[in-house]
Specification:
Length: 60
């Protein structure tokens, strides 16, 4: 699962749900503090949406 960690300690995950892509943001304390409201056909669209919601790191 592609993920990355921002300088503030938040972990961002880009993952597949069925055949679609979603993202999830987890705080350093382990709590989920954000998630995509919809799923995306293209991974790049999912990453773009995560960036619009604050992701500054690059998922690998």
């Amino acid at each position: 699962m592609p993920n990355c960690k921002d300088s503030n300690g938040d972990n961002w995950e880009i993952y597949q749900s069925g055949s679609q892509w979603r993202w999830r943001r987890t705080a350093s304390n382990g709590r989920i503090v954000g998630a995509s409201a919809e799923s995306y056909v293209n991974r790049s669209d999912c990453v773009d949406n995560a960036r619009r919601n604050g992701m500054k790191c690059n998922p690998t």
